[in-house]
Specification:
Blueprint (H helix, E strand, L loop, with lengths): L2 H11 L6 E4 L5 H8 L5 H7 L7 E7 L21 E7 L8 E7 L4 E8 L11 H15 L5 E8 L23 H4 L11 H4 L18 H5 L5 H8 L4 E5 L5 H11 L1
Parallel strand pairs: 1-2, 5-6
Antiparallel strand pairs: 2-3, 3-4, 4-5, 6-7
Helix pairs in contact: 4-9
């Protein structure tokens, strides 16, 4: 998409003024301020949720999950979801079931977004919807000038060599594989290379060149020859973050939007 088309689609499909906020279980705006340390405007919550036009965003609070991810059991996709303000997005026109975003405190001085569940259907009719959602979140954060500081977007990037299949049908046939590990980095998300990926490096001594110098997923993808193929074939997903303080993260996101 060219810059003009990106802006047009973002204004059309992610306009917070077309969506509605609901507060679950008698939750009040003051409760949000007490819980998270800032009283958000409705439009800010809708933008942070990355809600497409015409959505209903339900606000609730939730404690952290207690299950730590199992290193030897990535197909189970056991996540540690932080405690925070849960934004549940429903929109039958664009979302199959629901999207779920958590606003949480990443440090004493900063907030962050945890992207727990994204379930867009195909009714948008164009690619790059997830990236437009991320851009909407990032732009909303940039407009909260007098509020809290956000430092990252975080998620579990599912998939990779060691993850196995997503599900199996009643007949036992394998469904499609998890692809988040390969899609989210294209939008600017990054992480240190997983140990299971590092275990494969000795088998790639000469190609891709400079592979052994790579510490992160973005380092691998930046390799001119073979980096993207290596990651798609051998990479392993895990927790990834879009850094709001990294000088290149927004450039990676905009570059991806320009290519889809």
């Amino acid at each position: 998409m060219n810059p003009a088309l990106i802006s047009t689609r973002q204004r059309a499909y992610f306009n917070p003024l077309t969506s509605t906020i609901l507060f679950a279980d008698g939750l009040q705006p003051q409760d949000i301020a007490d819980f998270i340390g800032y009283s958000f405007e409705d439009a800010e919550l809708i933008g942070l949720a990355g809600a497409p036009e015409g959505s209903v965003v339900t606000v609730s609070t939730k404690g952290p999950t207690e299950d730590e991810p199992g290193y030897d059991d990535p197909p189970a996709k056991i996540e540690q979801v932080p405690a925070g303000l849960v934004l549940t997005v429903k929109n039958p026109a664009y979302i199959s079931k629901k999207n779920e975003i958590v606003v949480y405190r990443s440090s004493e001085d900063s907030l962050a977004l945890y992207i727990k569940l994204i379930d867009f259907n195909k009714n948008f009719g164009f690619s790059g919807v997830g990236a437009l959602m991320v851009r909407s979140m990032v732009d909303t954060i940039g407009k909260i000038s007098s509020g809290p500081t956000f430092d990252r977007l975080r998620l579990m990037a599912a998939g990779g060599r060691s993850w196995g299949d997503r599900e199996r049908t009643a007949e036992g046939a394998a469904q499609d594989r998890w692809i988040g590990f390969n899609v989210w980095p294209k939008m600017g998300f990054d992480m240190d290379l997983h140990e299971k990926t590092r275990e494969m490096l000795p088998y790639f001594e000469k190609y891709p060149k400079k592979l052994r110098d790579c510490e992160t997923v973005q380092n691998v993808l930046a390799l001119v020859e073979g980096g993207k193929d290596f990651w798609l074939t051998v990479g392993d997903g895990w927790y990834m973050e879009f850094s709001l303080v990294h000088p290149e993260a927004k450039e990676w996101l905009n570059r991806y939007l320009a290519e889809v």
